[in-house]
Design goal:
The chain has helices spanning about 30-45, 90-95, 135-145, 160-165, 215-225, 235-240, and strands spanning about 1-5, 50, 70, 75, 100-105, 115-120, 120-125, 150-155, 165-170, 170-175, 190, 205, 210-215, 230-235, 250-255. The chain has about 260 residues and is α/β, with parallel strands linked by helices. α3 links the parallel β7 (about 120-125) and β8. The radius of gyration is 17 Å and the shape is globular. Bound molecules: citrulline (CIR). Citrulline binds near residues 16 and 247.
Length: about 260
């Protein structure tokens, strides 16, 4: 049974970091409700939810994906590119330490979990406004001895690599080619987002099903036509904080005894 680590929504979510979006009013009660439904989706897909209490003083702390990269062999604790997000790490380290050997990214490296896409034993690391070359070098040093190949991928026009491309099946990626070079993914099958839905590539694969935002209707149709089974979630409020469905959880296989 996979574990999904989540964290409640901070009441200060509106003070979040924003890079590509203009600030908008966020309905916090609705954001909390949407987050709860998201946790229910993950539970329905077979995850054991480890739900951490909200960190009220850390506006972006609901986006736990950015704090760590977890594989069977280890968990890399990140050093987020946004300074305001670095205090999110210690509480995640405490939880993850029960499941995995921990490796911590150190200065001058920066890396956000949203920039790391894992397909089998290949790790694609986005070079973005949040993740730098030193961060990717540290990711490589931690993951290559465990049998992974790490490839750096430049990202432009969006926040993270996983804003531009995500796995929707073991052999299929959902992609916005305007934000990342599709040629870098070799012969993996690709599904393009609908032209009118540039932000639609963020999708969370759990087992063989995909948690997907209901608002990207055209891309959703494409996924369905391609035989991808989806569970949809309304993410309207968290999306105003530039968050997507991958951002709100750390999903990994349970091993060891917490
Ligand atoms: C940030 O800018 O850091 C947050 N407002 C959004 C983070 C979203 N995380 C993700 O895509 N992995």
């Amino acid at each position: 049974m996979p574990i999904a680590i989540t964290r409640g929504v901070s009441l200060k979510l509106e003070r979040c970091e924003l890079t590509h979006l203009d600030p908008e009013a966020i309905d916090i009660a609705r954001a909390c409700e949407q987050h709860l439904r998201y946790e229910h989706c993950l539970a329905a897909l077979g995850c054991e939810i480890v739900s951490l209490p909200a960190e009220s003083e850390l506006p972006d702390s609901v986006f736990v994906e950015d704090t760590a990269v977890v594989v069977d062999e280890l968990a890399l604790l990140t050093r987020p590119g946004a300074r305001s997000r670095r205090p999110e790490i210690p509480s995640i380290a405490e939880v993850l330490g029960a499941y995995r050997r921990l490796v911590q990214v150190v200065p001058p490296g920066t890396i956000d979990g949203g920039d790391v896409l894992i397909v089998g034993r290949t790790v694609y690391a986005g070079l973005s406004a949040r993740t730098n070359a030193d961060g990717v070098a540290q990711l490589k040093a931690a993951f290559e001895p465990a049998g992974y190949t790490v490839t750096a991928v430049p990202v432009t026009g969006c926040l993270h690599l996983k804003s531009a491309v995500c796995a929707v099946a073991a052999d299929t990626l959902l992609i916005n080619r305007d934000w990342v070079d599709a040629a870098l993914f070799g012969r993996i099958k690709l599904i393009d987002v609908a032209r009118t839905e540039p932000a639609a590539a963020n999708a969370l694969l759990v087992g063989k099903k995909v948690v997907y935002p209901s608002r990207h209707e055209r891309t959703l149709e494409r996924l369905t036509r391609a035989g991808i089974e989806t569970v949809t979630a309304d993410f309207s409020e968290l999306a105003k904080a530039e968050g997507g469905v991958t951002c709100c959880s750390l999903v990994f296989e349970k091993q060891g005894t917490p």
